[in-house]
Amino acid sequence: MGESMEIQKLSEYIGAQISEVDLANLSTEEIADIKQAWLDHKVLVFRDQHISTPEHIAFGALFGDLEIHPFAENLEAHPEVIVLEAGGDSPRQTYNAAKDWHIDVSFREKPPMGSILRGKVIPETGGDTCFSSSSAAYEKLDPNVKDRVDQLFAVNDYTKMFGPSSRFNDDDSHAENIKKYPPVLHPVIRTHPETGGRSIFTNNFFTSHIDGVDADESRYLLEQLAEAIRDSSVQFRVKWETDTFVMWDNRCVHHVAMDDFLPLYRKMERVTIAGHRPF
Questions:
Q1: What is the largest CA-CA distance in the chain?
Q2: Among 34, 100, 121, 202, which is disulfide-ready with 207 (CB 3.0 to 4.6 Å)?
């Protein structure tokens, strides 16, 4: 490990805070240590990182190619950076886009590997983000449920969240997006390509149903999986500060953002690391 870098575990199954490090000026050894810590802890928290937007992008690019979200609002000068804001004088006075446990854009053939989110404007109260280890949730499943879901696939459909009635589409763009993002089959339980760990990959935002079982069985199993993600013993919560950075592994982590800051203003910026098709 780098001479001064410190890693503090934040909960039993998920999360660590890394301190005594400058994300804009990392040594080769520090980069390797951060990559390993990310695999070990799934979510990493960095405080007081006063770095520029290009340096945020450069840090993300250490972990893979960066992708542009198909629907989110991006910085005009830096399209890799998603802007997430609500409350205050912003156009958005609700925060429905992240109000349930979810995996980012699992409706894509290749969902992202992970994301790095930065606190830009943090309200005095509220606005925390909660993270759940979907690998620990899988391990805690009832053995009967685990046996039933282990080899199944589920349909992930963009229209469940981003349909024609949402703010992301009108009738014309919706028709085009259905062609661009048709429903895709992903494993209910995916295998992490680097650790080999197994984790729940269904989510309430985009998973419409489990393939190959009847509707009642699909609803029952999806609810059992969602309940496992909601287990507080496999979660931890981040209280944001300005220039806090949080990176999470989208392959084995679900997350949910609290909207308890409204009508106060909250602004975040995020880069997203491209991934591979789940298996």
A1: 56
A2: 202
pTM: 0.92
Secondary structure (DSSP) of 132-152: EEHHHHHHTS-HHHHHHHTT-
The residues with which 209 forms a beta bridge, in sequence order, are: 155
One-letter amino acid at 101 equals: W
If one counts every other C-beta atom within 10 angstroms of the C-beta of residue 231, the result is 15
What span, in angstroms and rounded, lies between the C-alpha atoms of 15 and 240? Answer: 14
Q: What is the pLDDT of residues 163-188, one digit of tens each?
A: 655 555 555 666 777 778 889 999 99
| Encoded amino acid at 80, one letter | E
Q: How many CA atoms lie within 13 A of 236 on its CB side?
A: 21
For residue 224, give Cα distances in angstroms to 73, 98, 149, 190. 33, 21, 10, 16
| Neighbouring C-beta atoms of residue 143, cutoff 10 Å | 7
d(CA 21, CA 36): 15
Give the chain's length.
Answer: 279
68-74 long-range contacts (CB < 8 A, ≥24 apart) are 68/272, 69/105, 69/272, 70/105, 70/108, 70/177, 70/180, 70/181, 71/162, 71/168
pLDDT tens by residue, 73-113:
778 788 899 999 999 988 776 655 567 899 999 999 999 99
Q: Which residue has the tokens 């290749």?
A: 110
Retrieve residue 276's tokens.
Answer: 């591979």
Per the rule left: phi > 0, alpha: psi between -120 and 50, beta: everything else, 243 is left
Query: Could you tell me if 100 and 161 are in contact, meaning their C-beta atoms sit under 8 angstroms apart?
Result: no
